[in-house]
Design brief:
two-stranded antiparallel sheet, 14 helices, elongated, disordered N terminus
Length: 426
């Protein structure tokens, strides 16, 4: 069988048959061509949307959440409704020592101030930062930022209460232009800070406390010192690893109850501790992307199936017109398998070449789209709209299977033609 398929005479006969009916061959091929073209375009667009969302979400650890204390809404242990409570550095030590699920705990300390009111000065030049945030080193492992230059805040900065800072790229460009900012001394509200790093966000649509390119980060311990906060903590950014059998939400709520218990807050007082889990965002986006991918495959495969049916119908018409040819072959001793093989190869050749052509054209177009999108820099929701190699191979296999399916019915019809009846036809 394989020898027959790769036989030179067989290939020549198939190609000659297709060439003798060029218009019909081209018409037959167009259905598969456009079906595969549309499928690849849709898959690339779906891939671009998926890559864009994944790229944005990767800036935050999936199993992370942020929490801030709020007023009590339920009286508890002598503390009235509406009373204020605070987290402290002792809570951080408690979490480190007693809650192994809290794999990374970042303290967050902020000072009061209007948005954009944090003036930074360097050699007489001033710019306004949108926000100033005190964080511990864990912040930079949970919230991924791009370091244009320098380093993250480290444990020595926190423990030694250093006046170190990280500034956003836009602030750096306004203050220092093309010069390096690392090692420079800037002033804010009478305190002088050494710039140790410059950052920008992975995505403009996923941030904490504002666009990182316009923010200033300092050690949480330094923020407490300059504001006289003692061991006060404004909130936590925390990455957790739930134990087996427990969801992220369950672990988060359990940690929340532990913190409430340490500060005489009613466990059922949900409003007293504001909590946002980022895994909820991940889950919602994941379901949305799966829905988009399913829709893409339904539309693409549906269009391709239309092409397969078209090929099969046209091949059936061709079989009826070639009764005499098939009858002659049967009369001179052609085996049923030879007739079936030729019809199948004709169908496979048309579908494979046309499908491959549609795929190549679609990929060339999307390579151009990818270059245009990358050049524009607008890649937040549409990034690298190209399918992976494995998916391209799968599409090639789908094309081959389409050719086989399209030839089944015509080949079966050809075998029913009797040599005597076919030779009697004009």
């Amino acid at each position: 069988m394989l020898k027959k398929i790769f036989d030179t005479d067989t290939r020549k006969e198939v190609l000659n048959t297709l060439k003798s009916n060029r218009k019909r061959t081209i018409t037959t091929a167009m259905g598969i061509f456009w079906g595969m073209f549309l499928l690849i375009i849709l898959l690339c667009v779906g891939s671009g949307i998926q890559n864009g969302f994944v790229r944005q979400l990767n800036s935050l650890s999936q199993n992370s959440f942020i929490c801030f204390p709020n007023q009590r809404t339920i009286a508890c242990d002598g503390f009235p409704k509406g009373s204020v409570w605070h987290l402290t550095s002792s809570d951080t030590r408690y979490l480190h020592n007693n809650v192994p699920e809290a794999v990374s705990v970042c303290e967050i300390v902020q000072e009061g101030g209007n948005w954009g009111s944090y003036k930074l000065t360097y050699e007489g030049k001033s710019v306004s930062a949108n926000n100033k945030v005190g964080v511990t080193p864990e912040f930079f492992s949970i919230h991924k930022l791009i370091f244009v230059e320098g380093r993250p805040l480290n444990t020595l900065d926190e423990v030694n209460v250093r006046a170190s800072c990280i500034i956003g790229e836009e602030l750096k460009n306004q203050l220092f232009g093309g010069e390096s900012a690392v090692g420079k001394i800037i002033e804010n509200k009478g305190t002088y800070y050494t710039v140790v790093g410059v950052v920008r966000q992975v995505s403009d649509n996923m941030n904490l406390f504002g666009n990182a390119a316009q923010l200033m980060y300092i050690p949480a311990s330094k923020m407490r010192q300059i504001n006289g906060y003692g061991d006060y903590i404004g909130g936590y950014l925390m990455e957790i690893q739930p134990p087996r059998g427990e969801s992220v939400a369950d672990t988060r709520d359990r940690i929340g109850k532990l913190l409430k218990a340490r500060h005489s807050v009613a466990p059922e007082d949900r409003n007293a501790l504001f909590m946002i889990s980022f895994d909820v965002i991940y889950t919602a986006v994941n379901y949305m992307l799966k829905g988009i991918l399913l829709l893409v495959w339904i539309i693409g495969i549906g269009t391709l199936m239309g092409g397969i049916i078209s090929v099969s119908n046209i091949m059936l018409v061709t079989i009826n017109e070639r009764k005499r040819e098939i009858g002659v072959k049967r009369a001179i001793g052609a085996k049923p398998g030879d007739i079936r093989l030729q019809i199948a190869l004709e169908s496979l050749t048309i579908t494979f070449l046309s499908g491959l052509g549609g795929m190549v054209l679609a990929l060339l177009i999307m390579i151009g789209v990818n270059a245009a999108v990358s050049g524009s820099g607008n890649t937040d929701f549409f990034y690298r709209p190209l399918i992976p190699f494995e998916l391209a191979i799968l599409c090639v296999l789908i094309v081959g299977l389409s050719g086989i399916l399209a030839g089944l019915l015509p080949a079966s019809r050809a075998l029913k033609i009797r040599a005597v009846e076919a030779l009697q036809e004009e």
